[in-house]
């Protein structure tokens, strides 16, 4: 499970990452990444999830959220510690196999992080 200290909580943080960060789309998700320039750091990257009603009913959305949080915890060590990341689930994420979600998150994170570094 993704530790609470590595989650985005404030809506202002979500807005900053989505509006100012770099974006990379994949079939199952869109990954937004932004370099955290604040003075307060939590000691690692912070992740936020957006799973809209387009993904499915509440049971489906919660299942997708749990799966994405688990994958975010898996890739946590590979992500730069000063990044803020928002993962927006696409409807395809509801039926995608675990391997596809992992691949899409890893490649999306790598591309978005690279773009975020280049633009900051």
UniProtKB/TrEMBL annotation:
Gene3D superfamilies named in the record: 3.30.230.10
Catalytic activity: Endonucleolytic cleavage of RNA, removing 5'-extranucleotides from tRNA precursor
Annotated GO CC locations: ribonuclease P complex
Domain of life: Bacteria
GO BP: tRNA 5'-leader removal
InterPro entries: Ribosomal_Su5_D2-typ_SF (IPR020568), Ribsml_uS5_D2-typ_fold_subgr (IPR014721), RNase_P (IPR000100)
Keywords: Endonuclease, Hydrolase, Nuclease, RNA-binding, tRNA processing
One MF annotation (Gene Ontology) recorded for this entry: ribonuclease P activity
Keyword Nuclease: yes
Enzyme class: hydrolase
The EC number(s) this enzyme carries: 3.1.26.5
Function of the molecule: RNaseP catalyzes the removal of the 5'-leader sequence from pre-tRNA to produce the mature 5'-terminus. It can also cleave other RNA substrates such as 4.5S RNA. The protein component plays an auxiliary but essential role in vivo by binding to the 5'-leader sequence and broadening the substrate specificity of the ribozyme.
Family membership noted in the UniProt record: Belongs to the RnpA family.
PANTHER family reported in the protein's UniProt record: RIBONUCLEASE P PROTEIN COMPONENT
Self-association state and partner proteins as the record states: Consists of a catalytic RNA component (M1 or rnpB) and a protein subunit.
The protein, known as: Ribonuclease P protein component
Gene name of the encoded protein: rnpA
């Amino acid at each position: 499970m993704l530790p609470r200290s590595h989650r985005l909580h404030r809506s202002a943080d979500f807005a900053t990452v989505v509006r100012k960060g770099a974006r990379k789309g994949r079939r199952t998700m869109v990954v937004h990444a932004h370099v955290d320039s604040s003075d307060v750091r939590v000691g690692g990257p912070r992740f936020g999830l957006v799973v809209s009603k387009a993904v499915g009913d509440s049971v489906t959305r919660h299942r997708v959220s749990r799966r994405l949080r688990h994958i975010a915890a898996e890739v946590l060590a590979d992500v730069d510690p000063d990044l803020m990341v928002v993962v927006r689930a696409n409807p395809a994420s509801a039926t995608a196999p675990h391997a596809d979600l992992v691949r899409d998150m890893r490649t999306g994170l790598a591309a978005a992080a690279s773009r975020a570094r280049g633009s900051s």
